[in-house]
Amino acid sequence: MNCEAPATMRKDAPQTRLSAIVVIPCLNEAAHIERLLQDLDGAADRLDMPIVVADGGSTDGTREILGRIAEVNPRVVVLDNPRKLQGAAVNLAVQEFGDTVDCLIRIDAHADYPDDFCDRLIEEAQSTGADSVVVVMTTKGRSLFQQAAAMAQNSKLGNGGSKHRAGAKGHWTDHGHHALMRIAPFRAVGGYDESFGHNEDAELDHRLGAAGYRIWLTDRTGMTYYPRDTVYGLFRQYVNYGKGRASNFLKHRTLPKLRQMLPAMVLPCAAGALLALFHWWTAVPFFLWVLICLGYGVVLGVGQRDPRAVLASVAAMVMHFGWSAGFWLQMLRSRRRGKGTS
Questions:
Q1: What are φ and ψ of residue 106, in 5° steps?
Q2: How far apart (Å, rounded) are the C-alpha atoms in residues 11 and 301?
Q3: How far apart are CA 303 and CA 296, in angstroms?
Q4: DSSP H stretches of helix in the chain
Q5: Which of 22, 206, 245, 315 could form a disulfide with 149 if both were Cys (CB 3.0 to 4.6 A apart)?
């Protein structure tokens, strides 16, 4: 892949403010999109930013809402995203508008952001010279199960100690939740890989790092995410996450970190438990995992004085099992494809 020379610390860069576009991948977000655009309106005026909403074919009234808003707000531009994927949405927006700005700011339609989110990102990119500025993601919930899932995702049991989940002081990193990216590095490494339906952000970060570009995790701002509010929805989401992570390992021939290897072993442990009728000890790893999760939930509940933490341990088990299932499904699928082409 042809990559331009990396831009690390730009001490000689001009001090004029970086220009940016906001990009919002969107699909069936009628319940959230109008409020989100209203929240972004002040920053768009202050920073003179277009807001590009790339819609993947919404059928719930989102397009009608967007059309009404775009008629009265010239900053809002609506694009069709026939591939529906978030990565494809950002690629499309950069293709259409990337020549006119220095940076893109990626906004998720189903999340909350502080009023000065875009301001802080541009300031951080300007002061550090970072090619990409990523943020900490905190999860919150409204319904009981969503609150439990949020507690799980905010805990080490659910996120494995990931820095962009747990929070940390600002530092250089290899991955984080995507927020701001300079257009030139984004284009130099080829943008998002549209074969990835999930985990496309980590895959792009791998290529950025390999090409010598620098990623800064800021502690000056962050975003709030709302997890799936049903067991099935959470499970499906983590199956997709597992598939995406496996695809990343396979594409770049890298090895999982410890925090990824541990949940990957959940499905094999569950398969081993099925053999307990013949050898009781084969069930020990699976039931040990269950006890660790439940015990963590009890300790978390006592520490936070919140009985919902016990349900959070159940949500974490759903996440682990879904991630492991997706991971191994993708690994086996790749192996079958390899045999088919050999």
A1: -90, 125
A2: 48
A3: 10
A4: 33-47, 62-72, 86-97, 117-128, 144-154, 156-159, 163-166, 183-188, 200-210, 231-252, 258-264, 266-273, 284-304, 308-341
A5: 315
Structure-token pair, residue 324? 């492991």
Which CATH superfamily is 20-141+161-226 part of?
Answer: Spore Coat Polysaccharide Biosynthesis Protein SpsA; Chain A (3.90.550.10)
Count other Cβ atoms within 10 Å, centred on residue 304.
13
Query: Model-level pTM?
Result: 0.84
Q: Cβ contacts of residue 44 below 8 Å, gap of 6+?
A: 22, 50, 51, 75, 118
Task: Name the nearest CA neighbour of 256 among 234, 270, 241, 237.
Answer: 241
Please calculate the CA angle 128-11-216 and round it to the nearest 5 degrees: 20
* 52 φ, ψ (degrees, to nearest 5): -105, 115
pLDDT confidence bin for 341, thresholds 50/70/90: very low
Q: How far apart are CA 227 and CA 230, in angstroms?
A: 9
In the chain, domain spans: 20-141+161-226, 247-337
Structure tokens at 72: 């009265």
Q: How many CB atoms lie within 10 A of CB 37?
A: 23
- Could you report the per-residue pLDDT of 255-303, keeping only the tens digit for each? 888 888 888 999 999 988 888 778 888 889 999 999 999 998 888 888 8
Average pLDDT over the chain, rounded to an integer: 88
Can you tell me which residue has the tokens 């660790």?
292
Q: Are strands 20-26 and 103-106 parallel, antiparallel or unpaired?
A: parallel
Whether the predicted pLDDT of 52 surpasses 60: yes
Instruction: Tell me the Cα Rg of the chain.
Output: 21
Rounded CA separation 178/192 (Å): 12
Confidence check: pLDDT of 335 > 60 = yes
Helices 200-210 and 231-252, packing angle to 10 deg: 30
Contact of 94 with 191, CB cutoff 8 Å: yes
β-bridge pairing 51-55 and 20-26: parallel
Q: CA quadruple 180, 181, 183, 187: dihedral positive or negative?
A: negative
What backbone torsions phi and psi does residue 81 show, to the nearest 5 degrees? -115, 85
